[in-house]
Design brief:
Number of helices: 4
Radius of gyration: 14 Å
Order of helices and strands: EHEEHHEEH
Strand content: 15-25%
Distance between the termini: 30 Å
Helix content: 25-40%
């Protein structure tokens, strides 16, 4: 669990820098293997890959014939992307995720 609110800027190449206070913990806990997905509240969720796998399994065990659960499956699993940090501790946010969340460049 990463606590606290931090302002994060998106650059022109859809990259965000991981705040310093989280970098080491993310690298240690995840070995740089992360999953980024969308949330129903138009935000993004970032998980270490090992933490995402059981969440995905629970989501996929929901009924695909119920409107709410199939919507969650399409959103959370459909937007899920394996993602890694670059050498500057940045994440490249897929353009579909940028559009979904309405992320914009700072003005």
């Amino acid at each position: 669990m990463y606590r606290g609110a931090t302002r994060i800027n998106l650059d022109g190449k859809n990259r965000i820098a991981i705040p310093t206070k989280y970098r080491e913990k993310i690298l240690i806990e995840s070995s740089g293997l992360l999953v980024l997905t969308a949330h129903i509240y138009k935000c993004l969720l970032l998980y270490p890959q090992f933490a995402w796998e059981p969440i995905q399994e629970k989501i996929m065990n929901l009924s695909s014939f119920e409107k709410k659960s199939s919507g969650l499956q399409r959103l959370l699993v459909g937007f899920a992307e394996d993602i890694g940090l670059d050498k500057a501790s940045r994440l490249v946010i897929p353009s579909e995720s940028v559009s979904y969340t309405h992320l914009t460049l700072p003005t």
